[in-house]
Amino acid sequence: MHIPRFIFTPTVLLLAAFAGGCQSLDDALKPLPKPAARVIGADVRNLNLDSLDLVFDIEITNPYGVKLPVVELNYALGSGDLQLLQGGINTLANVPANGASVIQVPARLDFAAVTQTLSNVSPGSILPYHAEINIAVDAPFVGAINLPLKHEGEIPIPAVPEISLASFDIGEMTWEEVSATAKLRVKNTNQFQIDLAKLQFDLELGDETVASAGTRRTYSLTPGQSEIVEIPISFSPRAFGVSITGIFDMLSGSVADYGITGILDLGTRFGPLSIPFSYGGETVIQR
Predict the structure, then answer these.
(1) Kindly report the CA angle at 55 between 49 and 61, in degrees rounded to 5?
(2) How do strand 194-205 and strand 125-139 relate by DSSP bridges?
(3) Using CA atoms, how far apart are residues 77 and 87, in angstroms rounded to an integer?
(4) Contact at 8 Å (CB) between 79 and 115?
(5) Quick one: which of 134, 138, 127 has its CA closest to 51?
(6) What angle do CA 135, 140, 144 make, to 5 degrees?
């Protein structure tokens, strides 16, 4: 009996694959999935008069059934056509199989270096920036894959608000106690709104520190706006190392030299900001 012989050509194999179902062929011909990355956050932290930290949250997605090593991460930060800084991080993670990880990328920005690089930028400004971030991962069967990212945003370069003693209004004045109201004029010298959350200060009249006082009332100041902050003060003339008569003579005059030193706690859309200040001048004594 003659048994026919079948020749398994590529065409036959292809037909067999179709006979077994199109899904298996589609899976065989489908390209490997690729990892992805995106910026999910960019926060300003540790804001002060000298510097800030700009922290990027980078989410990396791994489509593979094995862990995905992140082998390199570099960034460059600029404004307009000028580069402000560049850097990278050395402590890198493995993205879990079929999962995602978030890597934090901190960049410290020194304001002295910024104003030196950008001559048109001064304290109180809002600075637009652009960031370019490149992530390299070691993909299975493929090798190194670069995941480039871009992000744009704004950062502040804060300025100290102007503070002056508009007037010192005397209430009751006896040999034992003087009650008064210090009227402080606070001007926002920034291009962004500030919320005055706390004002603490030492007040000096003449050559004597007469009181330590403050307020926790909140004042919102738009760019360039001024506000009079009234703060009640009381002190004993006997506490000074000069004659009581000398204190009374100063408080009975029309003007007096003053000095005011303290701390402002501010809220901004970029985060909290604590600013030391020191101002002096001449103020009106009112009774």
Answers:
(1) 175
(2) unpaired
(3) 9
(4) no
(5) 127
(6) 35
Task: Enter the tokens of residue 75.
Answer: 């960034």
The separation between the first and the last C-alpha atoms of the chain, rounded to the nearest angstrom, is 131
d(CA 104, CA 73): 11
Instruction: Quickly tell me which residue has 């030492």 as its tokens.
Output: 202
Task: Name the residue among 175, 173, 171 with its Cα closest to residue 183.
Answer: 171
Distance CA 62, CA 96 (A): 7
What letters, b where the CB count within 10 A reaches 16 and e where it falls short, cover 246-285? ebeebbeeeebebbbbbebbbbbebeebebebebeeebeb
Cα separation of 165 and 279, whole Å? Answer: 9
pTM score, two decimals? Answer: 0.80
Burial tier of 239 (Cβ tally within 10 Å: 0-12, 13-18, 19+): exposed
Q: What is the DSSP letter of 238?
A: G
Could you give the angle at which helices 22-29 and 10-20 cross, rounded to 10 degrees?
A: 120
Give the confidence band of 27 by pLDDT, cuts at 50, 70, 90.
low
Which residue type is seen at 210?
A: V
Q: How far apart are CA 125 and CA 2, in angstroms?
A: 94
> What pLDDT shows up at residue 90?
80
Q: Does the pLDDT of residue 115 top 80, yes or no? A: yes
Q: Minimum mean pLDDT among 52-56, 64-68, 117-121, 269-273: which range?
A: 117-121
Distances (CA, A) of 107 to 31, 46, 78, 130, 229: 36, 11, 12, 13, 37
Average pLDDT over all residues of the chain: 86
User: Three-state DSSP class for 116?
Assistant: helix
Angstrom distance (rounded) from CA 109 to CA 29: 48
How sure is the predictor about 19, in pLDDT bands with cuts at 50, 70 and 90? Answer: very low
Rounded to whole angstroms, the Cα distance separating 149 from 151 reads 7
Q: Tell me the sheet residues that pair with 196.
A: 219, 266
